[in-house]
Amino acid sequence: MSDEKSIEYLECKGISKLTNVANQEILERNENLEYYKDIFYQCGKCGTCRTVYQQNKWPRICPSGEFGKFEAYYLGGKNLLTWAVSTDKLKWSEKLAKIFYQCSVCLACTQQCQIPEIHNYAGEWLMAMREKAVQLGFGPMPEQAKYTEHILKENNPYMENHEDRLNWLPSHIKQTPDAKLAYFVGCTSSYREQGVAIATSEILNSLQVDFRILKEEKCCSSPVYMTGQTEKAKKIAEKNVKAFKDAGIEKIITSCAGCYRTWKDTYPNKFGLDHGIEIVHLPEFLLEKLNSGELKISNNKTPLKITYHDPCHIGRHMGIYEQPRDVLKRIPGIELIEMDRNRQNAWCCGSGGGVRSAFNELSSFAANERIEEAKMTTAEAIVSCCPFCLNQFKNNIKNNEIQALDLSELVKRVI
Ligand code: SF4
Ligand code: SF4
To answer: Is the CB of 45 within 6 Å of ligand 1?
Structure first.
């Protein structure tokens, strides 16, 4: 098992960073496909984006390509298709749109490609192609359209009622009515992985932090945005921002990697919603409290061998790799064993980008490969910092062969 890699990569810009390009223009995310049309063809179709360099045991990196088993499903093929439609050599069709939706936008491929323009911006055009598919009526996929309708009515993609959103909240959780800090629970922790919401609230209470949960909280819009439905996603985002600003919230803690990325990055950088609210993912918050001495961890060792799964939306999309590991390493009795594909090279769990709802077989294929890789480390548990990854692992683990846990649940056990 490898831990620290000696390979140097180009810095990941994610799909969303405002970036200085050579002519000093500021490139806004998902800019018109026209902007990139000379770049697509720089792709040499070398196939490097299919595998992790110098990785022998778990070399493959693209769930879409490995499942689809055809060049179109890898980034190289998508680049060629994007170039072809952008130069009118290929017409849009349902089949073409489906190829682009059969991808979790995990960005593992962009990490492998070392052509700077592709490495830095391919995530932009993977998203731009989805936006274009929606504009032309070829997207989203029917299952994604269905959950979007439900989000617009009931503020969650799980076909649940909004009025049940806080059903998980136990009476012993103490909230402060005028707190400036909010816990943004997210849809998955509210309706599916409620243990994460309870553990996070209990940690905040034990730290004696003044916080509150807003009953006006709505889906962050990530499942809508990630499927190319930008206008609808922006409208949802505006409602969330208004509710949190009206409530006087100055800081938000998130449980879900998707909520974090969406609030911190998509809202201001894509939707132009400069909310000015500080957005912190739970592991960042926990590490800060550990470093300040406010979070005290029991010295009672409960031995547990774990491995850590990097969620794409905090990892490659936002650059959070070390904070969760730093928290885990501070828990007595925890032995962290890295999977071969870790950090920038982590294999996606297969739940994001609308894939789980529309392409269930691909989604399970990706999850099962990650679970196998985790089991190979001999870890007893696969730990992550995202309830969506957690739920995906739980749904795919067979015969309790390995546990799946969220970092919050592990920390709650030892404070
Ligand atoms: S995207 Fe990069 S790594 Fe992939 S085929 Fe094209 S040039 Fe090669
Ligand atoms: S974003 Fe992920 S699933 Fe999509 S082509 Fe790249 S590696 Fe494959």
So the answer is: yes
131 has a pLDDT exceeding 50: yes
Q: What is the pTM of this model?
A: 0.94
d(CA 80, ligand 1 centre) in Å: 10
Into which CATH architecture does domain 298-413 fall?
3-Layer(aba) Sandwich (3.40)
Q: Report how far ligand 2's centroid is from the alpha carbon of 94 (Å).
A: 19
Cα separation of 71 and 78, whole Å? 8
- Which atom number of ligand 2 is nearest to the Cα of residue 123? 1
| CATH number for the domain running over 142-289 | 3.40.50
The CB density around residue 18, as the number of other CB atoms within 10 Å, is 12
From 36, 40, 41, 48, mutation site for ligand 1 pocket: most ligand atoms within 8 A of C-beta: 48
Residue 52 beta carbon below 6 angstroms from any ligand 1 atom: no
The tens digit of pLDDT for each residue in 282-323 reads: 999 999 999 999 999 988 888 999 999 999 999 999 999 999
Q: Is 42 in the pocket of ligand 1 (CB under 6 A)?
A: no
Residues of the chain within CATH 3.40.50 domain(s) are 142-289, 298-413
